[in-house]
Design goal:
single chain, 162 residues, 8-stranded mixed sheet, 27% strand, globular
Length: 162
């Protein structure tokens, strides 16, 4: 079963409404934005971070045009220095490759200890766009359904002003 199909099956099982889109592979927020421009939803980016010691991983979700200062984020969260997780750590933890990071990676068995940080500003959006764990497709869901999805996972989720 493909990674997107696992995501669609999980959303179906939760009774969530979503729309699917296919597009060429995208590896950056800028590339994704080109394909997402005609979609009536708020585009987001998802950052997979680790702390300095490497014993805590974070998934940070924010609107695509926002910039996050990792030094400021460290202060907000109260951890030590952040860096981006390696492709190997990403695959082990969320079961995805770079460019495919999304909250749906929390379906992966290795993700249970990932701390999720969501920008509070996303709560005002009607719909959000994510990859379904593969960067050749996108899916839109409501913010309420994102919250419902996150509530089904064992992860600690914090909505913060970023």
């Amino acid at each position: 079963m493909s990674e997107p199909q696992k995501v669609y099956d999980a959303l179906d099982a939760m009774g969530m409404q979503y729309e699917k889109y296919e597009h060429p592979p995208v590896f950056t927020s800028e590339e994704a934005a080109e394909h997402w421009a005609p979609i009536k939803a708020t585009p987001v980016k998802n950052l997979f971070l680790r702390n300095k010691k490497g014993h805590r991983q974070y998934l940070v979700i924010l609107e695509i045009s926002k910039q996050v200062d990792l030094r400021e984020l460290v202060k907000i969260i109260g951890d030590d220095r952040f860096s981006f997780g390696s492709p190997e750590r990403l695959m082990e933890t969320l079961g995805v490759t770079p460019g495919s990071v999304s909250p749906f990676g929390l379906l992966h068995p290795g993700s249970k200890d990932v701390l999720v940080i969501v920008d509070r500003d996303l709560r005002t959006a009607e719909r959000l766009i994510f990859h379904p764990n593969l960067n050749t497709a996108s899916v839109t869901i409501s913010v309420a359904d994102l919250e419902r999805f996150l509530a089904t996972r064992p992860n600690v989720v914090r909505w913060l002003q970023l």
